[in-house]
């Protein structure tokens, strides 16, 4: 019998993976993907459309996205002297970092539960991945275990998400700084949810030679543009840039993101609404017997339901109320019986609370 070409040629670590699954959401209240629930005001949409009418797509895009980088520096702001690298979402930046550092014997270190793409991209790049469990009671950093892993494994890169996905909490900044100082290689502070917290390591870029900060415009309301940003010392960014595919940020994304950031006040207003709605949703969840929500600095809330009921709650929310959330039960032992709920509009949040009251009661 001839050899199976799949088994012969596809790497075992790839065959062992499952493709990243995005559930069908047509017709549902979509509270599973941490998206901004608000679309653009009509006047802004018309102005954007007028700008896009003048964009030619017969030429390749600016390979360095020079104008967009300048706009990003102004909008956030980025510390003077920090270099910028753009990616097709944060995922591509994580991949570029892994490819840059994927020497024999190198590894990626992160905390768990955490962002699943750190582990998946490690497999793509043939790197070992090591996850250090967070503290069970509050999802804080287990510093003795983390520092022991750093000393033993000597990771080439450490990913730390602040706020963390899927738990929503910030880590003690003093502990993150201690981790940066203990790390032998690069430390990536992933600030995907920066619009929903006042804490940030972006102003500290340049303080340590091994610190870079990663952000995205997705959560502020531009998820469809797929734009991630890395800020860090020029020496690091120049090396990572060598594995970036040419023209990775298309012209339409460059022009649209630049336009949106010129109107950042609109998205800041939406962010303030989401923050206020997060507080109201958290308070409402605490009032439902059988549910335990954790405080969040992101645009989602992690909640634990009655033992053994996460799958049923997830199914009934979709089947009976048309609401799609994320079932995290089985993803990690610390996430047993947990669901992740994106903060929606007040009307969507009210529908979610009404449905949970019926289902969990």
What topology does this entry show?
Layout: H1 5-9, H2 12-15, E1 29-30, H3 42-53, H4 66-75, E2 83-87, H5 89-101, E3 107-112, H6 116-124, E4 128-133, H7 143-153, E5 157-161, H8 173-182, E6 186-190, E7 211-216, H9 218-222, E8 228-232, H10 234-241, H11 251-262, H12 264-286, E9 292-293, E10 300-304, H13 310-321, E11 323-324, E12 326-327, E13 338-342, H14 346-360
Helix pairs in contact: 4-11, 5-6, 12-14, 13-14
Can you give a write-up of this model?
The protein is α/β, with parallel strands linked by helices and 361 residues long. It has two domains: 5-41 and 265-360, Aspartate Aminotransferase, domain 1 (Alpha-Beta Complex), CATH 3.90.1150; 61-263, Aspartate Aminotransferase, domain 2. The chain contains 14 helices and 13 strands. It has a seven-stranded mixed β-sheet, sandwiched between helices. The N and C termini lie far apart (58 Å). The relative contact order is 0.16.
Give a quick set of tags describing it.
361 residues, alpha/beta, Aspartate Aminotransferase, domain 1, Aspartate Aminotransferase, domain 2, 2 domains, seven-stranded mixed sheet, 13 strands, globular
Count of discrete domains? 2
What proportion of the residues form beta strands (DSSP E)?
15-25%
CATH fold type of the largest domain: Aspartate Aminotransferase, domain 2
What class, by secondary structure content?
Answer: alpha/beta
Please write the CATH class name of the largest domain: Alpha Beta
Provide the succession of SSEs: HHEHHEHEHEHEHEEHEHHHEEHEEEH
* Biggest beta sheet attributes: 7 strands, mixed
Approximate helicity band? 40-55%
Helix count, DSSP H or I runs of 4 or more residues: 14
Mean pLDDT: 96
Give the total of beta strands.
Answer: 13
Q: Give the terminus-to-terminus CA distance.
A: 58 Å
Rg over CA atoms: 21 Å
**Side-by-side strand order of the widest sheet:** 2-8-7-6-5-3-4
């Amino acid at each position: 019998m001839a050899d199976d070409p799949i088994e012969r040629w596809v790497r075992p670590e790839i065959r062992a993976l499952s493709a990243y699954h995005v559930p069908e959401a047509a017709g549902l209240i979509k509270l599973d993907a941490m998206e901004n629930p608000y679309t653009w005001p009509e006047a802004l949409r018309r102005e954007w459309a007028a700008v896009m009418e003048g964009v030619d797509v017969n030429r390749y895009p600016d390979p360095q996205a020079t104008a967009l980088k300048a706009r990003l520096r102004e909008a956030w702001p980025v510390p003077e002297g920090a270099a910028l690298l753009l990616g097709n979402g944060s995922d591509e930046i994580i991949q570029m970092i892994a490819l840059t550092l994927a020497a024999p014997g190198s590894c990626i270190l992160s905390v768990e539960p955490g962002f699943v793409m750190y582990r998946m991209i490690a497999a793509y790049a043939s790197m070992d991945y090591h996850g250090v469990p967070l503290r069970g009671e509050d999802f804080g950093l287990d510093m003795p275990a983390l520092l022991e892993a750093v000393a033993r494994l000597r990771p080439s890169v450490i990913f730390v998400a602040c706020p963390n996905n899927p738990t929503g909490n910030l880590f003690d900044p003093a502990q993150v700084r201690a981790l940066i100082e203990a790390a032998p290689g690069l430390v990536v502070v992933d600030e995907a949810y920066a619009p929903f917290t006042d804490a940030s390591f972006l102003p500290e870029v340049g303080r340590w030679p091994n610190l870079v900060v990663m952000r995205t415009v997705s959560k502020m309301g531009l998820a469809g543009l797929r734009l991630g940003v890395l800020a860090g010392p020029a020496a690091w960014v120049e090396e990572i840039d060598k594995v970036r595919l040419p023209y990775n940020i298309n012209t339409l994304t460059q022009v649209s993101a630049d336009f949106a950031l010129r109107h950042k006040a609109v998205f800041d207003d939406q962010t303030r609404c989401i923050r206020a709605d997060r507080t109201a949703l958290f308070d409402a969840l605490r009032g439902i017997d059988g549910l335990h929500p954790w405080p969040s600095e992101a645009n989602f809330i992690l909640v634990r339901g009655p033992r053994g009921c996460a799958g049923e709650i997830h199914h009934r929310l979709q089947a009976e109320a048309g609401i799609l959330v994320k079932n995290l039960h089985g993803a990690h032992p610390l996430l047993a019986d947990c669901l992740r709920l994106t903060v929606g509009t007040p009307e969507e949040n009210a529908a979610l609370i009404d449905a949970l009251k019926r289902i969990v009661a």
